[in-house]
Amino acid sequence: MVVLVGLNTDRTAGQRSDLSRIKAWWRTLDGDGFVVLPPPTRGRYTQSDGHEDAAEMFATQGIATGTSFAYWHWQSHDAFDRSGGLQGALYLHWGGDHATVATGLGEGPPGYRIVNNGPQGAFQLDKVTATDADGLPDPEDTAGVRQFLSRVDEPRRRTARSTEYDPLAPAEERWLHDRLSGPVDLDAAVRFTAPLEHRQALTPDETARLLSAWRETYAGRLTAWRGWRSVLPALLRQEHPEAWEVAAELGAEAAYALAAHPSPRSLELLRTWALTGDEGAVRGWFRAHHALREPDPVRAAAALSEELTAHAAPETAQTGLLRALREAVTDEPETRRPTADAFLPLLLATIRFATDDRLPRPLRVAAAKAAVDTADRVREAAGRLPDAAETADALAAVGRYETVRDDLLAGTGPDLTGYEGGLGDIYHRYRTLSPADVRWLRDRLADPATGVQGIAFCLELLYAHGQATEADLVALLPRWKKELTKQYRTTYTEWRHPLVTLTCLALDLEHPAAADLLAWWSKPKPLWKEPVRLLTHLGAPDEAKAAELWEFVVSGGHDTGHLMTWVLLRARLDGTHPLHVADKLIGEPGIHPYTLEHVLIGVADPAQPLWHYTIDPRSHSWWRRAQEVADHPGLSAEARAIGLKAARRHCIARYPDQVRPPVTQGEVNAAHAWLEARADRTAAD
Q: Most exposed: 179, 411, 509, 606, by fewest CB within 10 Å?
């Protein structure tokens, strides 16, 4: 904490904003081997985009490729409010040599400071604020209060099931209680309740007054006030008579609080929510059941798994139960000792559960799915254990798992309702489709419960592999007008909008529904469809469609898959591999090199094109395609150089811990060996 007693915080109306001050300072930064990227637009949304922007700036301005750089992206830009005021720390990301970047950034502009989080983290820029002798901010100093709250609410230890905080100093606790005295202001109070209740320090009087204001102001929508996550635990802890009524109204979101206060009443509420498939409720139900009724975690999980199956709970419920079981067995002191791989206890537990006959098959299937990408990691980490008996035991567990894996996984697939990035992480598993995969994908399309994201994922895989049929089309036709005509952003996914893919399928099949679909696409509204309308030209392609699409590509319009569509379309018309089509476009006027580079890698396997808006440097799929392009004997030297450049920038070579799913050290070593073997080749930088 920087202590500058009496610092005069600039609040004068008409003064320059934080953003303008920071930009003015940013423009002065330059040094030996160090540059900064211009402030971001929405096009630089992630760290990957930042590194791509740096590469493009280096190429256009003739900057040496080894130059270190710093930038912030659009997500970091959320630190500023609409008026340009800094409302949170601004994260500054970087590339190159960490020490060079630290020197280049210096201490920050006057009135601000730079926090160096080390070679594995981003830098943070924040305001310099004043504190008193107790290290406490002026309650009117917004930035000072924010920094104080951030400090006292930082956990000292966190596990899957609990979070511990350092105790508050008496002066700090008094300061927080003072903020909750007087008339209740719920918007302000939400910031001060959390650090107090994290130490179980909210008083009964504070809790009662907050509860009254909360229920009155947010009647019928209690979860709309964020402070409930502190008030509900306080109500349960204090055995307030309204606690259970409030918990029931909050619903499954309150599961974590009820699990932390197990009782027969909380157990019954958690069970009700868990049977709906809510993963958080399942985990809470397990914790309460484990605490109250069954001390053995495996027997507890087995009993709940059977009950979930008996009530036909969604498959996600078994996944949640597995997570709860793993947390229970790896949170024990003897499993937390340092190992060669910090995740080995968790990974090994998952593998063992897949073959544990004490568990029902649905739970073993969930374990087998969770362990798909971990067997090699466990094998590798086990080989580094100091105890030979432990090594042998771990390797034997892996062997048992691999013996039953295919049987357990037959006819299964990923959770289609979760974070779409998770589906992208496993896309490489579907580069070829087994008969069981095809059946599972078709079953999901025919299931009315499959949502838009699931339809997009499954239909894209079937269509790209040539496995989509009229039956799949017919299964979706009753749903397209009401469900598939809604906006669904696919900028950072490996699949297209499902209505684009469905239209392509209808056109290829010459199905009568194609006319209705095309008529809908030709209407002016809704507006979201216009940027992707031309992507439907991949279905039943002809020269007229190719010409219209090409006209858009060279017009400079925002590309959301248009060049990739044209390359795939042209390849179908010419009966050639799309890589050769893309290769011929290198240097073509009107074709943006950055877009062409990601298209060239993305079409390396036409049976599974990668529709991601840019090259994803954390993805297994993009790494393998970059390698294939770099080594393709039928491509030009320029095309192969593009593949090599993408491979060199992939995280497996620079930040392997960011690759998802995680890679083994053996895979990292193989990647470095592959790159070193091509070190004499010039990348197209």
A: 411
The per-residue pLDDT for 158 is 81
Sign of CA dihedral 301, 444, 432, 494: negative
Per-residue pLDDT, 13: 38
Mean pLDDT of the chain: 92
Q: Name, in order, each residue with C-beta under 8 angstroms of 198's C-beta and a sequence gap of 6 or more.
A: 153, 163, 165, 230
Backbone angles phi, psi at 112, to 5 degrees: -130, 170
**526 preceded by a cis bond (ω within 30 of 0):** yes
| Helix, strand or coil, per DSSP, at residue 674 | helix
Q: b or e along 174-194 (b: 16 or more beta carbons within 10 Å of the residue's beta carbon)?
A: ebbeebbeeebebeebbbbbb
Q: Which two tokens stand for residue 518?
A: 């095309």
Bond from prior residue into 661 cis (ω within 30 degrees of 0): yes
**What is the per-residue DSSP string for 498-542?**
HHHHHHHHHHHHT-THHHHHHHHHHSS-SGGGGGGGGGGGGSS--
β-sheet with 68-71: strand ranges across = 34-36, 68-71, 90-95, 123-127, 112-115
DSSP 80: B
Tens-place pLDDT, residues 188-241: 999 999 999 999 999 999 999 999 999 999 999 999 999 999 999 999 999 999
Type of residue numbered 672:
H
Does residue 625 carry a pLDDT above 90?
yes
Average pLDDT of the segment spanning 411-419: 92
